[in-house]
Amino acid sequence: GQGLPRAMGGIRAMRMGVAAQAVGWSRWTCAYTLQRIEAPHRGGTPLAEREQIQAMLADMVADTISAQSTLYRVAAQLDADPQAELTTEVAVAKIVATESLHRTVDKAIQIYGALALTRGNPLERLYRVARTLRIAEGTTEILKLTVAKDIRQRGIEAARPAGGRGGRGEHEAGPPHDHEHRPPAEAYHEEGQQRQGQEGPER
Fold this sequence. Notes:
The chain has 203 residues and is mainly alpha-helical. The protein has six helices and no strands. The model is unreliable at 164-203 (pLDDT under 50).
């Protein structure tokens, strides 16, 4: 009676593998693009000096960091409990990673220009890889249906943070505590004062 759980475990591992590939390629694309835009361009001025190019690079990095953080979070949950029900988390990791890779490569090609689409260019090959990863082990559209179905069954529990449950119940939605309204710096300052009162001043 372990056939289905083992099969689902295999699918979960393969989806995480695809997400890891996507994150790795996203990081490579950012590094490759940075090298390209820092090189002298027409007139000797690097493309990196242009604000529009800087904004596109920032978008690429933001997408990559977001995908990497999601991947690491889900991987940590799997390490902590390999038998945990993480259908939504794994699906989201795959969606975020592959979709961010697609956007990252697309921006890199936009920056690089028509030369990026010539056969043999690394970005030309990577664009096809990015498109393939969005399909492999479950298309983005199918995984969205998987997430929606799982969320309806498990509720907010499907998005629990790594390292355990939160302080509130699964469906409890009361008002935030007072400290949640204050700026983080103020909350940290108050916490530091309380800690000094308990442990004495730092030496």
